[in-house]
Write a structure and sequence with these properties.
Cullin_repeat-like_dom_sf, Cullin, Cullin_N, Cullin family profile domain-containing protein
Length: 329
C-alpha cells in the first residue's frame, strides 16, 4: 500500500495543481476528506470516541496505552473539521471534559477524606502534570486550558476550605511545623488559579493573628502575676515578624496578598494593651532601654542594635497611634 501511495501521489499532485485548479472543481484532498467523512467518520466516530475516552481512563489509572495510536485517531477528529475545530470539540472534546470532570470529582471526594493536606497536594500536582503530558502527547493544544481548569476546579477550588482547614495538616499546621516545601507547593498550585490564593492568604492571616494574640495573652497573664514583660513581649513579636516575613518571601514569593495578610494580622494584636500599657508605650520603652544598654555596654555590636531598631520601625508601621509613640519616646 505504501508503494502504491508513493506511485500515485505525483499523479494526484499533478492533477490537483494543473487540471483541478483550472477546472474550478474542489481539490482531490477536499473530495477525499468529504468522502471519508460521509462514508466512514460519521458511522464510527461515536464508538471511536468512547474507546479513546476509555483508553485515557486506563492511562489515568496507571496502565500503559498506545499514545501514538491515540494521537493519530484524534488527528482524524481535527482533520474532519476541514479547517476548523468544530468536529474535534463537539464529537470528542465536550464528552472528554465531562468525563474528566466526573473522574476528578470522584478522586477529590476520596482523597480529601483519606489523605493529609500535603499528601493531597502531591496527588493534585501530579495529576495536573500528567494532564499536561497528555496534551503534549495526543490531545490538541486547544484542549489544555479547558482541561487544566477542569482539574483545578475539582481538585483545588471546590475543596479549598476543607483542604486548608484540615486538622493537624492544614495550612495552620504547615505554618506551625515549618513545612516550607508543602507551603511552597500550596502556593504553586493555587497561584495558577484566578483568585485561588485568596483563601490561602486568609488562612495565613488567621494563623498569624492567633499566634500574635497568644503572645499578648501570655504577657497579660504574666502582668496579672505582677511581672511586667514589655521587653520580652516586644522581642517575641519581633521574632514572630521575622518568622512569618520569611514565609512571605520564600514560600509565597513576595506576593502582595501575603504582605497584606501579614500587615492586617499584626495590626490586630500590635494595637492591644497589656496591663494598661499601649503598644506605642511599650515600643518607646523598649527603644529607650535598648539605647541605654548600648551606651553602658561598649562591647555591643552596632549592627545588631541597628537590626533591632529596623525591626522596631517595622512594628511601628502597624501601630495606629504613631504620635503616641513619639510622645512617650
Amino acid at each position: 500500500m505504501t508503494c502504491i501511495s508513493h506511485l500515485l501521489s505525483p499523479t494526484f499532485l499533478y492533477l490537483d495543481r494543473y487540471y483541478i485548479a483550472r477546472s474550478g472543481n474542489s481539490s482531490l484532498t477536499v473530495v477525499g476528506m468529504t468522502c471519508f467523512r460521509d462514508h466512514v467518520y460519521e458511522k464510527v466516530h461515536f464508538n471511536v470516541k468512547q474507546v479513546v475516552i476509555a483508553l485515557i481512563h486506563k492511562e489515568r489509572e496507571g496502565q500503559q496505552i498506545d499514545r501514538a495510536l491515540l494521537k493519530n485517531v484524534l488527528d482524524l477528529f481535527v482533520q474532519n473539521g476541514m479547517g476548523n475545530m468544530e468536529r474535534y470539540e463537539k464529537d470528542f472534546e465536550d464528552f472528554f471534559l465531562t468525563e474528566t470532570n466526573s473522574y476528578y470529582s470522584r478522586k477529590a471526594s476520596r482523597w480529601i477524606q483519606e489523605d493529609s493536606c500535603p499528601e493531597y497536594m502531591i496527588k493534585a500536582e501530579e495529576s495536573l502534570k500528567k494532564e499536561k503530558e497528555r496534551v503534549s502527547h495526543y490531545l490538541h493544544s486547544d484542549t489544555e486550558p479547558k482541561l487544566l481548569k477542569n482539574v483545578q476546579t475539582n481538585l483545588l477550588v471546590l475543596v479549598a476550605k476543607q483542604l486548608l482547614e484540615k486538622e493537624n495538616s492544614g495550612c495552620s499546621a504547615l505554618l506551625r511545623d515549618d513545612k516550607t516545601d508543602d507551603l511552597s507547593r500550596m502556593y504553586r498550585l493555587y497561584h495558577e488559579i484566578p483568585e485561588g490564593l485568596e483563601p490561602v492568604a486568609v488562612a495565613f492571616r488567621l494563623h498569624v493573628t492567633a499566634e500574635g494574640n497568644s503572645l499578648i495573652k501570655q504577657a497579660e497573664d504574666a502582668a496579672t502575676s505582677g511581672i511586667v514583660e514589655e521587653q520580652v513581649l516586644v522581642r517575641k513579636i519581633i521574632d514572630l515578624h521575622d518568622k512569618y516575613m520569611a514565609y512571605v518571601t520564600d514560600c509565597f514569593q513576595n506576593h502582595t496578598l501575603f504582605h497584606k495578610a501579614l500587615k492586617e494580622a499584626f495590626e490586630i494584636f500590635c494595637n492591644k494593651k497589656v496591663a494598661g500599657s499601649s503598644s506605642a508605650e511599650m515600643l518607646a520603652t523598649f527603644c529607650d532601654n535598648l539605647f541605654k544598654k548600648a551606651a553602658n555596654d561598649k562591647s555591643n555590636d552596632d549592627s545588631t542594635i541597628e537590626s533591632t531598631i529596623d525591626n522596631v520601625v517595622k512594628l511601628l508601621d502597624y501601630i495606629s497611634d504613631k504620635d503616641l509613640f513619639a510622645e512617650f519616646y
